[in-house]
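Re: that chain you flagged

S.,

Sorry for the slow reply, it's been a week of failed gels. I finally had a moment to sit down with the sequence you sent. For the record, here it is as I used it:
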Amino acid sequence: MADQQPQLTEEQAQEWVRGKFQDANKYLAEQGILSDQILLKESRYLIPFIAIWKFTTQDRKKVWVVNGDVPTDLVGEKAAKTPRDALRHFALSWQLKADKILADQASSPEQQDYAKYLVVRAENVYHATDNEALWQQQD
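Prediction finished late last night. Pasting the structure tokens below so you have them in one place:
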């Protein structure tokens, strides 16, 4: 995933981050969660593939939101201390969800395709969390 990173201008990178931030905020709102503050020091981006955001909500909870070239998802702060751990959590969660779909004989072809998509994204995200060079100064 991160090994094949396309070259973006600084402006393109900033636009990507801004867009993913807006998407994450919109996703929270769709889930009935109103964000209060973004914790930028705890958020990370592997541009243009994945962003992991840490938000404080209006009810004073903290949540991780992941988006980019992955399923947009969220989890409470208790699931992970660091952005790297949050990504590991999402990768495992997607793998388990995919396994459940693939094991279900009644799942539709669309569900099977979605499960395969989840498996690929979970593997890519897990490999990114395993790449020390991406996290040297971030944990």
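What I noticed first: The mean pLDDT is 93.

Talk soon,
D.
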